[in-house]
Amino acid sequence: MLTNNIGHHFMVRQAMIPRNLKPFPYICGNRMLSGYKSKSNIKDSYKILELEEGCSLDDIRNSYRSLAKKYHPDSGSATADSEAFMKVEEAYRVVLSDVATKKKSNENNEEEEDQFKSKAPQHRHYLSFEGVGFGTPSQREKQYMQFRVDRATEQVLEYRKQRLESQYAATDLMKAKDVRQSKKVKITQAVERLVEDLIQESMAKGDFDNLSGKGKPLQKFSDCPHIDPMTHNLNRILIDNGYQPEWILMQKEIRETIERLRKNIVASRSKLGGPMTPYRQKQWNHICEQFIEDIRKLNKRIDNFNLVVPILSRQMVHFSADKEIVRAQKTYEALMENRDASNSDTKENEEENVKSFGWKSSLFKWLNLTLK
Fold it and tell me: Over the range 306-323, which residues count as b (16 or more CB within 10 Å of their CB) and which as e?
């Protein structure tokens, strides 16, 4: 029961002291605890409550409650001490007073700031009209309207200027395109007239009299509706008479050149034979250097071919000299293996022939002896 009464007494004091901040008279024995006046300062009060400055009100209450239960003389605990309890109670009042004073000073500062803000001069009317003009509001409004008119006029003029520039640019592009097209037409017509004049001149000289189809209509070589008959017939005539496009001749030349180079390097390796002595290795290095130079020239020829070939899929890639040399080495090794295999087969055949010939000679000797 004593413990419950003490707890109830603490809760009543906890609810009353923070509100009015007046000393609460508490009788301990025959002594008024409220009459105790400590000379400790605020920092000592925080130390007595085992708190730090700036703590919350809940922390202060919890600390006071735990210390009161610990030092209250009526608690019956081993640590009960009336003097310590009075110090705790005094420190509790001092700390609560300090917290309330700080809170009140903060509120006063905020009120002063609010009063200062409300009394500060307002310049809101200078923020209107986009900051244009000076004088009274009516004068500034007129100046702002004139400013808007001038700005709109400038925007309209700028838009018209950009539109005219775009039109002139489009007109210039059309003119340049028309000029290029007219030049192209004139060149085409000039070429056609030149070709026609050359054909007529050749016909007058009799250059076409030896043709097998003279005086006969041209046959359609293709029934495909997607091919121009005239273009197809002209191409067919050129092909039949040995004329081929430049890129086809270049492609044929490149293929023949790489085949010739491959055969030459294999033949050179076969001439050197094996095993590779220092002298033979020096000769082989010289042959490889010459082969690399030939491959470089061939790759340059391939670049020229790729510039004139009309079909992208017909373009060719460069040849690698190192890969070609390795390929020649493998080809030479394969030839050597085939040669060794053929030599072994030849020896076996000769041995069989010798054996069969010896059997036949012994048979003839026996027959001669028998006849005698």
Answer: beebeeeeeebeebebee
The secondary structure element, H or E, covering residue 241 is: none
Q: What is the pLDDT of residues 238-278, one digit of tens each?
A: 777 777 788 888 999 999 999 999 999 999 988 888 788 88
Contacts made by residues 268-277, CB under 8 angstroms, sequence distance 24+: 269/328, 269/329, 269/332, 270/332, 270/335, 274/336
d(CA 187, CA 181): 10
Query: In the 8-state DSSP scheme, what is residue 218?
Result: P
CA separation for the pair 296, 187 (Å, rounded): 39
Residues in the chain: 372
125 belongs to a structural domain: no
The CA-based dihedral angle spanning residues 154, 155, 159, 161, taken in that order and rounded to the nearest 10 degrees: 20
H or E element at residue 32 = strand 31-32
Number of domains observed in the structure of the chain = 3
pLDDT tens profile 88-126? 888 888 888 888 888 888 777 766 655 555 444 445 555
Domain stops at, among 60, 86, 105? 105
Domain that holds residue 319: 245-360
Inter-residue contact 27 to 103 (CB < 8 Å)? no
Confidence (pTM) = 0.34
Q: What pLDDT does residue 21 have?
A: 39
Tokens found for residue 105: 């000073």
